[in-house]
Amino acid sequence: LSCIKAKMKMMLATLLVASAVMAAMAGPVQITYHWHLQQPIYWPAPIPSNNNTYQKAWQSIQLSQSQGGHPQNDLNGIFEVDDRIAIYQTRAADSINSIGGCPDAGAQVSYSGCLIENVNSIAGNLGGYNVDWNSTYAKFMQSEKTSGGYQKLDFVSFTYHHALGPLIDKEALAMEIAIHKEIYGPTWGNAAYSKGFFPAEMAFSERMIPALVEAGLEWVIVPNTHLSRACKNYTFSPAGDNNDPPNAADQINPEQDHWFSQSISRGCTPNNAVPFSFTPHKAKHTDPESGKEYTITVVPAAMAMSWDDGYACYDTTDIDNIAQYNNEDHPMLILLAHDGDNAFGGGYSYYMQCVPGLMSDASSKGYHPTTIQQYLSDYPVDDNDVVHVEDGAWVNADGDFGAPQFVNWDWPLLNETGSFDIENGWALKERNWAVITAAQNYVLQAEDAVGKARPSEVQEPSSDATEAEIAWHFFLPSLTSGYMYYGAVLDMPVKQTIACNTAIDHARKALTSAKNSDDKTPPSVWALQRLPWNPGAYGAGSLWKYQYTQMTEDFYVWTFIYDVSGIASVNFYYRIDDDGVNPLSDNANEVYETTFASGVSDWKELPMVYREMPKGNVYNQSSIDFFVLPDAIADEYYVHVEGLSNVLIDYYVEATDKAGNVKKTDIYHVMIE
Questions:
Q1: What angle do CA 495, 497, 500 make, to 5 degrees?
Q2: 297: phi then psi, degrees, rounded to nearest 5
Q3: Half-sphere exposure of residue 391, counting CA atoms within 13 Å on the CB side?
Q4: What angle do CA 539, 541, 545 make, to 5 degrees?
Q5: Residue 541: left if φ>0, alpha if ψ -120 to 50, beta else—which one?
Q6: For the segment 144-177, what is each residue's pLDDT rounded down to a tens digit?
Q7: H or E segment and range at residue 153
Q8: What is the pTM of this model?
Q9: b/e sequence 490-523, b meaning 16+ C-beta within 10 Å
């Protein structure tokens, strides 16, 4: 009702005021939601009755006793929560329906492919899950539209297995999206696939953009903190950010005049530029080989506001405080994005009382409830409005708080006393990334040997599936970010190995049967890591025991590399920028070929040091039970960069296998102060 009243006020104003005022009213602050839903494949081992597919929730519940109590997660307790039963089937639609008189009010939902599989398996088997569990959402998506004809519930694109996009291969990211498309249509009444993408953990890097664009996606949700931290005049706070300061190489967005700082119960104080970090923009990635630009619209989620909205009924107080800075030609979009099946933000009170309450409050004050797709139709982003988004996830992960290195999913190598040791250290999460990297190469080798994998056969292998497609099917659950997030809890440390060993077994069968066994697949190289993040400047947050700490100018870059044929050489290349700035207006720092890159030096080469990565529990940690060891593991390659000061450098790694295939990584940047 309040939405109707607000609209009547605007209509009356249109009749009474001058045209300039009417134009201004066309762009009030906009507001929308994103609710994230996920349950992983808890035990990615084959089903005894069908060795070509992994276990979904119901199979794991039935098989747990016969397979040594695995998975150790309490699946009945997880899926039988009343609020999860509701949100997985109907409640998001009920919530939007409870918002009266707002023609554009809606929400975005990320519903992972593995959650769909799990619910399909328990429907009709666990209490509360109907055989036609998806029918309410499917009908709602078809019938309930905004004024522009867009879905009021936009079930957006997502990585099928909740994979952390910035830390996986581009090929894996592309396949995760492709198989999500396969399950999307049959589940949601053949609804058209969304144009938007939600990254797992809201973890984003511009390196993901080519895969997103090639998948036909037009916009991606990102944390607004990583737009703000990339501004030239961002004010860093060790206790507020609770992670490393942004590296100066990333601080290339324009200076901003207005800032909004907000402490949250997670234990950090996001500081964001207003209206800059509350407004959609474009971001780009340049192919370093061809120089081709890929651009996508980035839609910032309000980090502090989102956290608060997920833990209590939210009101417009914070929005009121920043509304004065709204640009009516390109208005702010307050996107409240958080888990939709956990904590307060997954409950009845949230969906059925808080959501309609906030929408009523917002609309009565002249704010406009909407959806992202409707907003982008009403206020298209200028192609020239290109910004930089610093790497990082949402602030929600304790100990990470949006760190640009994704430390909650990727803690650096340590010695036995817990100090960083890149040359000789070990860490559970890094070890498991090495396991994943080796399996990835096996899968790619298998696909190259027997022919391109069909996403439909990867998503759910039939009797016609190739061994390479089955290898992909088992490999992809290993990318589940939750396995890394929880670390040495229950049987989390071996879930990646369970998936990867099965994938490698099928990949080897494909390679054995291939008519042409010539190796045409380059090495697999994991995302490059760096320590310290800010050479010559300062570190902070959990990596440095929450102390603001001076860093050395020297730094390490390392990665894990694997090739089925073996590695012949690995080299690190770097070059120095002439003026210490990597502007958004040109791509000189983004391409390999220095002939076309003015303002940078020639590349300098350093050999990377090889180190065999141990498979086992090196420090005999009692919380880790590796009762299964990986069939393959990638080895570490590192370089210690010394002797540079007060320079911006570009760098990448090149790996060559024994068959002569070459893999170059993307180009990275670091300011050494």
A1: 110
A2: -80, 130
A3: 26
A4: 95
A5: left
A6: 999 999 999 999 999 999 999 999 999 999 999 9
A7: strand 153-155
A8: 0.96
A9: bbbbbbbbbbbbbbbbbbbbbbeebeeeebebbb
